[in-house]
Amino acid sequence: MTLTRAELARYVDHTLLKPESSPADVEALIEEGAELGVFSVCVSPSMLPVSTPEGVAVATVCGFPSGKHHSSIKAAEAALSCEQGADEVDMVIDVAAALAGDFAAVEDDIAAVRAAVPAPKILKVIIESAALTDEAIVGACLAAESAGADFVKTSTGFHPAGGASVHAVKLMAETVGGRLGVKASGGIRTWDDAVAMIEAGATRLGLSGTRAVLDGGEAAGSY
């Protein structure tokens, strides 16, 4: 796959979710994201509202990073984020429910947040793929689709099991069959990593080191 720097940048949710992030850090993220031409900036919900230039969406997270929150709390957090200007919300499922095969509970959890994130706002569902079996990945993706989500997403980037893998992205993309988007996030640090995820079926990338990824492609003569 051959992509230009600008084309790859448009896949990116330029992300800053470190607990120690300050308002100045967020301002710097937004400025850098606008310069790089990313699709969105993704910040913690407590940092909202923020102002971004035209063409740069605002994303945030919900039930992050553990997913071990009551669905009503996730929904309330998501609703407040939308009121404060978020265009997209990335929620974390209850990973244990998916591992136990209780996909009805996973679907109900997602549906509660979907009700709080009305279209055309985007709901992405983080399944923490590195912690799941292939069967659980498929089940979680189907639950997300049944609940009305817009995307499935690999990882928070905070789980000790790891982040995105080509295998997980490919399996998720095959499961949702183009009906939902697929976001690869967690551990994507090079141009080649990013392109591999897109080739596997990712339609969005979560990156915290966006500039390094884009610069790496230029240095390698990849575009």
UniProtKB/TrEMBL annotation:
Location(s), subcellular: Cytoplasm
Enzyme Commission number, as recorded: 4.1.2.4
GO molecular function: deoxyribose-phosphate aldolase activity
Gene3D superfamilies tied to this protein: Aldolase class I
Keywords from the named record: Cytoplasm, Lyase, Schiff base
SUPFAM superfamilies cross-referenced by the UniProt entry: Aldolase
A Gene Ontology cellular-component term: cytoplasm
GO BP field: 2-deoxyribose 1-phosphate catabolic process; carbohydrate catabolic process; deoxyribonucleotide catabolic process
Pfam families: DeoC (PF01791)
InterPro entries: Aldolase_TIM (IPR013785), DeoC (IPR011343), DeoC/FbaB/LacD_aldolase (IPR002915), DeoC_typeI (IPR028581)
Reaction catalysis annotation: 2-deoxy-D-ribose 5-phosphate = D-glyceraldehyde 3-phosphate + acetaldehyde
Family to which this protein belongs: Belongs to the DeoC/FbaB aldolase family. DeoC type 1 subfamily.
PANTHER family recorded: DEOXYRIBOSE-PHOSPHATE ALDOLASE
Task of the protein: Catalyzes a reversible aldol reaction between acetaldehyde and D-glyceraldehyde 3-phosphate to generate 2-deoxy-D-ribose 5-phosphate.
Protein's name according to its UniProt entry: Deoxyribose-phosphate aldolase
